Amino acid sequence: MSIKVQTDKVRNINDAVKPVTNKLSNARIALSALKSNVDHGVAARRNIGSRLAKADKDLNAIHLRVQALETFIEQAMSRYDKTENQLVEKGKLAGISGKAVVMDTVPLRAKSASTQTTQVRANATAAPAGSGAKTDSKSADTKTAVTKTTEKKVYVTADQLKKLGWDKSKLTEAMLADLNACLARYNITTPARIRHFISQCSHESGAGKWPKELASGKAYENRKDLGNVNKGDGPKYKGAGYIQLTGRSNYQAFAKAMNDPKIMDGVDYVAKTYPWTSAGFWWDKNNMNALCDKGATVKQITKRVNGGYNGLEDRESYYNKCVEIFK
């Protein structure tokens, strides 16, 4: 075979292979580009994976903290309930679990003293006992006038309180006068209102055994929401009365309503002189009569008084007795 013929065959083979070579070259370029894109995608996925791993780690840490907090709260509540039960069994506690909460839910803390006084006077004017404005005398005469007026109408007697379990030694003339003056002043005069008011006060005070808060009141120091701005205000203006009035601001509003500056002497004076009226003042400011008139349950009343449902069973027991006593 001549050299020319062989050359022609090689040229023909080369011409046939060249398109294939070009295609392979193009495929290689495309494959390289694809590989580059894949590499970028892998890197991106790795970055996302790293971020997800970190987020998962952070969430796990938060979860552990939340679990620790829940455990702490459960342990604290367990200790709290145990302490309350022990005190109740010893006869040294009556509704203490709701005392701080009670006054924290009082609308008084969100209102100015002038607004409170205006509302109290408006309610007092409508009450059968009057606010004392009908007499020419001032503070002392006002209290005397209220007592004399309500002597004509007795809503609750000593015998009725005895049936509820109140200690007869606590049922003094002064205490009963304050009770009936309170009921008249704040128009707590229907069976439904009396039942709820007396049953809640009975629970909160241990049937009259504790007209003031058992705690020292130091927890209320520097409580500006209660008006406690001076040193010693916490203990001085701790819970007083059968639904405990708490804080300088509330004492000031009550003092103006009663026209009795001695109320600012503190807890002992209020607990002794106005155990019921201070409770009625709270009752009135929280519109409890309206709630009673709507047919509220003991649970609903307790929520307003306590801020929760502490002692609900005991409150219901007192209420059921009141239903039988106050027809």
TrEMBL record:
It comes from the Bacteria. SUPFAM superfamilies: Lysozyme-like. InterPro entries: Cell_Wall_Dynamics_Protein (IPR052354), Lysozyme-like_dom_sf (IPR023346). Residues 119-138 are annotated as: Disordered. Residues 122-133 have a biased composition (Low complexity). This is Peptidoglycan-binding protein. It comes from Cohnella cholangitidis.
